[in-house]
Amino acid sequence: MQEKARTMLPAMTETLGSRERLGVLHAAVPDMAVADSDFEPLAKLAASLFEAPIALVTLVDHEWEWFKAVVGTTETRSPADESFSAHAIGDHGAFLVLDASLHPLFRHNRKVAQAPLLRFYAGAPIILEGQAVGTVCVLDQAPRAEVAAKQLESLQRIADAAASLLKIKDEARRRALKEAALSREEQRLAMALDAANVGSWLWDIRAGTVAGNGAMMRMFELPAERTLTAKSVFGAIHPDDRGATFSKLRQAMAANEEYDGMFRIRSSGRWLLGRGRVHDRDSKGAALTFLGMTIDVSEQQASVQRTRLLLKELNHRVKNTLAMLQSLARQTLRQTSDPAEFMTAFAGRLQAISEAHGLLSDYEWGTIRLAELISKQLKPYVSDYAEQVEIHKDEVLLGPDQAVGLGLVLHELATNAVKYGALSVPKGKIVLTARSVVEEGGAVLHLTWTEVGGPPVREPRRRGFGSLLIERSLDKIIGSSVKVEYLPAGVTALIRLPL
């Protein structure tokens, strides 16, 4: 018997340290040190079956035997090398010790030789995934003469019940972890959607309700409740878009396709883009729920509308510009038969129109500042803009027609000043005075062009095309006028331009 004991101990140690067994054990019960009251009925049943004062439901790793449920003791664990249960695990069957004081494996065990002076042990292994991970066992200070086979069979059934309970609790724990992870993921997704201002919603078709996140409720300008009637949600859509939206949703449901549509909100007029599809159907194929998302595309829609208006304005401007260019070309040709002179005069006027168009384009064909127009038209004709152009002005904004017409006027005045007037000499300069005044309830620009420091001026004997262009460039603007005075000290132009 002593020889048998020496050969069994290494086998027991190897069994306790088995990687497969420990893997199953720790996967099923991550925290073995915690007692579990759910196993107490099994411990009490085992104690009753053997009329034993001590009963345990234990789990055994390579170092400790952990007590998950106890009867008749306050201990919570025992060293594995003092454990009777380690042998029950090793044998993978019911393990019986009638008198430990006579047993070669246990007579020197501390719990046998000293208090509590254990003598009797009966244990059955708890088996998970083919690995013994613990026992249901009973102990007594009194030895037994014999144990009925049916008792051991019943003890094994109790151990099997403990294994089933461990498996159920492990599955419940794993399911709870998955649900917790899913809940955290759903919370992260919900927070991300809300932060990105993306509305999410689920339409329960039979119940007639729509559940949505905070972003969706804000977009529809509905109460912050998570679930509302479908009628109130559809009622938030602009009446002009409601029918088409509902029709698209029904079409997507019938064809099992994705819904994709834009609509406005009745109260705010904001544009929303909605996308979604049927989430599930009943056994007959009828749609039960419809899942979707909504984003605010008001800015994009405004941009599209602005682009359309700009293209419309551009088409209008192109037509006007072509008509103006034809007129300029004809009038310029009438004034000269020299091709080179024609090209110089025509190119300058074309450039003046181009500069005005460039400014207007920069401001999306809205309004431009008078100072910018003056700078664009006069800088090509002066060597030192700050010294040769003096401006006294109010802040004045010009529309497209005013900018193009006034640009041509300034170009012609500057061209004449370079040829004959103040800009033909180094010390000459242009003084511009611009004032916005109210006349008959409307704003009017009074702009005075005065040439200073140039050669003496004589009024021309005949009016050339430049003079005609100065007077007629603002013809399209009702109430405008240009009056040029050839004073000896320098040319003066008085411009009146309704704004």
Automatic annotation (TrEMBL):
Record keywords: ATP-binding, Kinase, Nucleotide-binding, Phosphoprotein, Transferase
Reaction catalyzed: ATP + protein L-histidine = ADP + protein N-phospho-L-histidine
Pfam family for this entry, one: HWE_HK
Protein's name in the database: Blue-light-activated histidine kinase
UniProt GO molecular function: ATP binding; protein histidine kinase activity
InterPro entries (alphabetical): GAF, GAF-like_dom_sf, HATPase_C_sf, PAS, PAS-like_dom_sf, PAS_fold_3, Sig_transdc_His_kinase_HWE
Ranges for domain PAS: 185-256
